[in-house]
Design brief:
Blueprint: H1 3-18, H2 23-34, H3 42-54, H4 65-85, H5 106-125, H6 147-157, E1 164-170, E2 179-185, E3 190-196, E4 207-214, E5 223-228, E6 236-239, E7 249-257, E8 270-275
Antiparallel strand pairs: 1-2, 1-8, 2-3, 3-6, 4-5, 4-7, 7-8
Length: about 280
């Protein structure tokens, strides 16, 4: 495949990712793909093209439905595999022994894989502009909101019908009397933990980690809701940072884990549990 054809392939993939193709362009793309060497991964190239195409799009714009559906499907597979195998956060790039071209060989595949993962992570970590008020960077001259203020704004903005709430109960770690609650909105993909009497932790020994059990996730691998440390007494409020989109949350658990957290908890040290009541589901 010559350089001109390579450039045309990337142009078509970029257009497919951002705007969609005409029937003529779709036919042209299919013909070019037939000439692609076996050492190239067209799917990875397409995801790279998507990253390039979306790099100049404002964060508030809506991702094209066809691209979003594909990314979310691949993200489910990616994160599920991480949970099952407890792999490192960045999977190894496969080795290509004989790159057929200086640009589209090994380096091209590596860039494609990296861009694909980056795009997936960005999609999961992003929120629609209208729902990111509490976590947005404050405008010049305005004060950054504290976690307590963020929670207050969340509670005032989210209708009770769109919010789930659970109160903390005993876990399997003895001699703890933790109280408080957790609030969460599927629509906003936002929520907050509130604790009283949650002990300070030695950050060199362990950290706290949230797990979200929802109706779509295997209970053996609940959603990682983020890690946090406690360095003050009294009431503590922590924003939830879910690593996957949670839908239909049924329960929440806080565990003690090694510094940095884990991808799958053995649940040997559950500090506290919170179950959503039936009328709150």
């Amino acid at each position: 495949m010559n350089e001109k054809t390579q450039e045309r392939l990337l142009d078509l993939l970029c257009k497919k990712a951002s705007h969609g193709l005409t029937n003529e362009e779709r036919t042209e793309l299919q013909e070019i793909e037939k000439t692609v060497e076996s050492s190239l991964d067209v799917d990875s190239l397409e995801m790279t093209a998507a990253a390039i195409a979306m790099s100049g799009v404002p964060a508030s714009d809506t991702l094209p439905d066809h691209l979003k559906a594909r990314i979310l499907a691949q993200a489910d597979d990616y994160f599920a595999a991480q949970n099952r195998a407890e792999l490192p956060a960045i999977p190894a790039v496969r080795e290509i022994r004989r790159p057929s071209m200086p640009i589209w060989g090994w380096l091209g595949w590596a860039a494609a894989a990296a861009a694909s993962l980056l795009l997936i992570v960005n999609i999961w970590n992003s929120k629609p502009a209208e729902t990111a008020v509490s976590n947005a960077t404050p405008a010049p001259g305005t004060e950054r909101l504290s976690p307590a203020q963020m929670r207050d704004r969340f509670m005032a903005a989210v209708p009770s019908s769109e919010m789930v709430k659970a109160e903390w109960d005993k876990g399997n770690v003895p001699n703890l009397a933790i109280s408080g609650d957790v609030v969460w909105s599927d629509k906003m993909q936002e929520g907050y933990l509130r604790f009283t009497n949650l002990p300070k932790n030695d950050t060199g020994v362990y950290t706290y980690q949230l797990w979200i059990f929802d109706e779509n996730q295997d209970p053996k691998t609940p959603i990682d809701g983020g890690i946090f440390d406690v360095n003050a007494e009294g009431e503590i409020i922590v924003p939830i940072t879910a690593k996957l989109r949670a839908r239909g949350a049924k329960a929440f658990a806080i565990t003690m884990e090694k510094p940095g957290g884990v991808m799958v908890s053995d649940r040997s040290k559950i500090v506290t549990l919170g179950s959503v009541k039936p009328n709150q589901a």
